Amino acid sequence: MALYEHVFLARQDISAQQVDALVEQYKGVIEANGGKVGRIENWGLKSLTYRIKKNRKAHYALLDIDAPAAAIQEMERQMRISEDVLRYMTIAVEKHEDGPSAMMQKRDRDDRPRRDGDRPERSFGDRDRGPRPDRGDREDRPRRPREDRV
């Protein structure tokens, strides 16, 4: 049997429980066809770079799979039929990674304190330039002739 990493995107308007149900459904397909599913990661609801089927966000899920090619083909066939799955991608790998994936490590990195912790947040409202100088009335200024006015 071959090793695969499989990621799929589910519609934004389904709940997290429904995403878990989709994962269990596809896990059942793999196991029914003689494969095994190892690590399962739910990456949560994330913004998409561009709209896919009128969705601006999607639920991401990762599966580490050890299965024959026929099991993967059946799972992908069912994903093509499902209206809840926007996109999917299966990649053959040499071996599965230990520990959390890069997406989960990224989430941990965001929780760390910033390097510039003692620098206050700056905003544009802090710069007060004072009142604008008076430009005078518009009627007092000379009019420039425009080319279309002759």
List keywords for this structure.
alpha+beta, Alpha-Beta Plaits, 3 helices, 150 residues, 4 strands, 26% helix, four-stranded antiparallel β-sheet
Sketch the major β-sheet: 4 strands, antiparallel
Q: What is the number of strand segments?
A: 4
Shape: elongated
The Rg value, from CA coordinates, equals 27 Å
Distance between the termini: 84 Å
Mean pLDDT: 83
**Helicity, as a percent range:** 25-40%
- CATH hierarchy class name of the domain at 2-95: Alpha Beta
The fourth-level CATH homologous superfamily of the domain at 2-95 is: Ribosomal protein S6/Translation elongation factor EF1B
Which fold name fills CATH's third level, the topology of the domain at 2-95?
Alpha-Beta Plaits
Sketch the topology as an H/E string, one letter per element.
EHEEHEH
Give the number of helices: 3
Stretches where pLDDT falls below 50 for ≥5 residues? Answer: none
Strand arrangement across the biggest beta sheet: 2-3-1-4
Beta content comes to: 25-35%
Describe this structure in words.
- The protein is α+β, with helices and mostly antiparallel strands and 150 residues long.
- It has a domain at 2-95: Alpha-Beta Plaits (2-Layer Sandwich), CATH 3.30.70.60.
- It is 26% helix and 33% strand.
- It has helices at residues 16-32, 69-81, 102-110; strands spanning 2-11, 36-52, 55-67, 85-93.
- A 4-stranded antiparallel sheet has the order 2-3-1-4, with helices on one face.
- The mean pLDDT is 83.
